[in-house]
Amino acid sequence: MYQIKTYNAIAQAGLDAFTTDYQLNQSDEPDAYLIRSVDLHHQALPKSLKVIARAGAGVNNVPLEAATANGTAVFNTPGSNANAVKELIIALLIIASRNLMAAANYSAQHTEADVSQRTEHDKTKFNGTELLGKTLAVIGLGHVGSLVANAALGLGMHVIGYDPYLSADAAWNIAKQVQRADSIETAVKNADYVTVHVPKEEDTLNLLGAPELAAMQPQVQLFNYSRGGIVDNGAVLDALKAGRLAHYYTDFGEPRIANHADITVTPHIGGSTIEAEINGATQAAQTIMTYLETGNVQYAINLPTLNVPFNAAYRFTVIHQNVPNMVSQITQKLAAAGLNIATMANAAKKQTAYTIIDVDDLDHESSQQLIDALNKIPAVNRVRLLINH
């Protein structure tokens, strides 16, 4: 029986996805955490914890180094809220082009008897533009960016995208009419609107800063519904003051951009729809079950992707440091135990590697001795033995 601990309000559909082999919130030594926004940075991770799955895209709330050292795989649910974010960006494009917020605020402040005559006289203040024929630059063409790009094409916009890490699989999801740029500066230089959709990593911090904003034409409108820190807010304030930006829309506020007439901050609602919460919870539950039962890895943050059909009777999985001679040390331990390897696979992601080894014959006594021997290898973080039922 696997033990799952949940944090935050997890959509019931996700909880219902677990089979009868799983118990929810019944143990202080869980095999898995299913989380949303809880901050785990100040919590000690139990040694029993084999997997953390976040029902959402970002994992800023998870201590990745501590999890890896604990032998805990960390997963997110990419794409689960992509449609929700896409729809919000399209809504904001329309709101921005038609000055809807300013117009609504005006109407809210003028409710006197002659409101009809007054608004008829003043409505030209809020004349907007149409999206048809305008240019949208999309920085990042993954799950969200590709949907935004395709939807903008449907509105009659010209779309130019930039993504140096675009995978072949992701490229299939992008309409051929989306023009590809070879740099951010090239993508944004003729854009009327710029939206960014990239993960928050060390090399994406301040991805849009002063040089990139300087490359934009005057009065461009900028959207950051990716992560806080992807856009340099200090550079945004300077660009607004210089008239380079017309408006900045973001889901990630901080004091220095609060109460600014040309900045709209929404309360982190990009992926907050009922459907997205269901998608994320369900996907996270399936990820947990797949990892615990087969050891296979896809969309892990701290482990490499490794999918191996589980056809043998037993499977060892080993999370270890990506250092020389590790595979030979592991196989030597199996040879010393008199085991023949039916299937073996190994992959690495930065400083961490992951090895899957399948065997057909194994008795309980030798299995425990082997696990103990593998755990004694200094660079090993966690060893698991899975039984193919």
From TrEMBL:
<dbReference type="InterPro" id="IPR006140">
    <property type="entry name" value="D-isomer_DH_NAD-bd"/>
</dbReference>
<protein>
    <recommendedName>
        <fullName>D-3-phosphoglycerate dehydrogenase</fullName>
        <ecNumber>1.1.1.399</ecNumber>
        <ecNumber>1.1.1.95</ecNumber>
    </recommendedName>
</protein>
<dbReference type="Pfam" id="PF00389">
    <property type="entry name" value="2-Hacid_dh"/>
</dbReference>
<comment type="similarity">
    <text>Belongs to the D-isomer specific 2-hydroxyacid dehydrogenase family.</text>
</comment>
<keyword id="KW-0520">NAD</keyword>
<comment type="function">
    <text>Catalyzes the reversible oxidation of 3-phospho-D-glycerate to 3-phosphonooxypyruvate, the first step of the phosphorylated L-serine biosynthesis pathway. Also catalyzes the reversible oxidation of 2-hydroxyglutarate to 2-oxoglutarate.</text>
</comment>
<dbReference type="InterPro" id="IPR045865">
    <property type="entry name" value="ACT-like_dom_sf"/>
</dbReference>
<dbReference type="InterPro" id="IPR006139">
    <property type="entry name" value="D-isomer_2_OHA_DH_cat_dom"/>
</dbReference>
<dbReference type="Pfam" id="PF02826">
    <property type="entry name" value="2-Hacid_dh_C"/>
</dbReference>
<dbReference type="InterPro" id="IPR002912">
    <property type="entry name" value="ACT_dom"/>
</dbReference>
<dbReference type="InterPro" id="IPR036291">
    <property type="entry name" value="NAD(P)-bd_dom_sf"/>
</dbReference>
<dbReference type="InterPro" id="IPR029752">
    <property type="entry name" value="D-isomer_DH_CS1"/>
</dbReference>
<comment type="pathway">
    <text>Amino-acid biosynthesis; L-serine biosynthesis; L-serine from 3-phospho-D-glycerate: step 1/3.</text>
</comment>
<feature type="domain" description="ACT">
    <location>
        <begin position="315"/>
        <end position="388"/>
    </location>
</feature>
<keyword id="KW-0560">Oxidoreductase</keyword>
